[in-house]
Write a structure and sequence with these properties.
The protein has 152 residues and is of the alpha+beta class. 32% of the residues lie in helices and 23% in strands.
Length: 152
């Protein structure tokens, strides 16, 4: 079976919605607001080990490797990409479905806001938020767009 980028983006977005839940109101107050480490790099398994999860690999293709993970911080999707461009294309498609994204160099973690905020304390990276019309309780609707740089 040939895996296409739009199919991968859609798969990722569906999994993201399943994990984040439509309309879940995150409590992101103060979670992981300490110092952010240097952004982690490496394979899917290395990143998963950094956050103490055993990855359940769902997609293992040349362009993307994607796994379901869970640890004390919650459930999330962890994906690694062969190229920066492939990662950005995936993110652009997935963010149309809402959700919260922790983004590093050639990797993304997707989950509830509080989960990805906590993962950031181990993996570093940049927090990004999906489409405002798909995140009813998201910062887009609160008017507090992060304050630590642009979303994108």
């Amino acid at each position: 079976m040939r895996v296409t980028r739009p199919m991968l983006a859609l798969t990722g977005a569906v999994v993201a919605l399943a994990l984040t839940g439509c309309g879940s109101g995150g409590e992101g107050q103060g979670d992981g607001e300490g110092k952010v480490p240097v952004t982690a790099t490496g394979s899917l398994e290395r990143l998963a080990a950094e956050v103490k999860c055993k990855p359940n690999v769902q997609t293992d293709a040349d362009e993307i490797r994607q796994a379901l993970c869970g640890n004390g911080d919650g459930k999330f999707v962890l994906a690694t990409f062969a190229t920066d461009r492939g990662q950005r294309e995936w993110l652009n498609g997935a963010k149309d479905y809402g959700g919260y994204y922790l983004v590093g160099r050639k990797w993304v973690a997707v989950g509830q806001e509080k989960t990805v905020t906590r993962l950031r304390s181990a993996l570093g990276g940049t927090l990004e938020e999906g489409s405002e019309h798909m995140n009813p309780g998201g910062s887009h609707n609160r008017g507090d767009h992060g304050g630590d740089g642009p979303h994108g």
